[in-house]
Amino acid sequence: MFCHYKPLCVNFTSVVNEVAAKSFDSNADLYQKVRPSYPVESVESMLSFAKIPTSVAAVAEASKHGKKYAILDLAAGSGLFTNVLQEHIATTCNKNDPLVEISAVEPAAGMRTVFSQELPTVPIYDGTSTSLPFPDNHFDLVTVAQAFHWFANQQTLAEIHRVLKKDGRGALALIWNLESPEIEWMKHLRALYEPYDADVPQYRKGDWEEMFQVTGEQKTSLFELPITRKKFQTEMLVTQAHMMNRVESKSYITALSTEELDNLKQKMHRLLHEQYDKEFHLSVTGTNRKAGTINTGEAYAKHLLDVDLVLTKTLSIE
């Protein structure tokens, strides 16, 4: 069995972007309801990259030799990605003697509350990317879903490197899902809300990737380079109301003034309910619930998500 560690008390707003801090603390319930999940294929890629067994036969062989694996989901939020990870691992692990133990870290109290309600068996700790309440060389895999751009800095990479194993297995997996512009109405919806993120870090801007470049005074990298990239695409069904709520759950939209938010909501309503109303015509049966919370009788549209996965492994620092 793995040991659990006492959470650290960390001032969220002092180390994380203030826009993110306010949004993630106040919007936890909305975030859980309207944000999209992640494809199982992406989880399989992470586990395979970290050499964590996933097939029944491989799990049985690892258990025979007494092996154990530990995963940390950093900035776990309300647990959307952690849930996919846990469910996938549960299909092959012995519940009485689990091969893989998952832990989570999340600095926003509101998110931790929702997380604990959704995933009561997964321990979640208060902490940040630069102050993790775990010993050195502890985890086989650290995952960060939809969040690394908020805290992409050398201190974060150093702290993640510290808690990861250095035996050739310690892996870092970063994942983002983005509303695909392949869908015309989604492309126009993005054009309405993306101008508001000019002053906050975002994955699509690419600034986060600079942290992995070895330049100037940074003589050596903590992680294998070049980073490995994989892309997936997943489809879900959404209503107009679902999409409007999802946009409102975005941190930089939460930070808008009441007047700015009302103006944006009016524009989104015209786009989704007038210009593209005919796109929302699909009915849903009780057997097609990939979109999450589905209410039969409502009209849905197909919605594509582009999923980007970034993988790398630790380097031993002499």
Written account of the structure:
The protein has about 325 residues and is of the alpha/beta class. Helices cover about 35% and strands about 15% of the residues. The protein contains twelve helices and seven strands. It has a seven-stranded mixed beta sheet with strand order 3-2-1-4-5-7-6. The N terminus is likely disordered.
What kind of sheet is the major sheet?
A: 7 strands, mixed
Total number of helices: 12
Radius of gyration: 20 Å
- pLDDT averaged residue by residue: 85
Task: Provide tags for this entry.
318 residues, globular, disordered N terminus
Secondary structure blueprint with pairings:
Layout: H1 12-15, H2 18-26, H3 28-34, H4 40-49, H5 56-64, E1 69-74, H6 80-90, E2 100-105, H7 109-118, E3 124-125, E4 141-145, H8 154-163, E5 171-179, H9 184-193, E6 228-238, H10 240-249, H11 251-254, H12 258-275, E7 301-313
Parallel strand pairs: 1-2, 1-4, 2-3, 4-5
Antiparallel strand pairs: 5-7, 6-7
Structure in a nutshell:
This protein has 318 residues and is α/β, with parallel strands linked by helices.
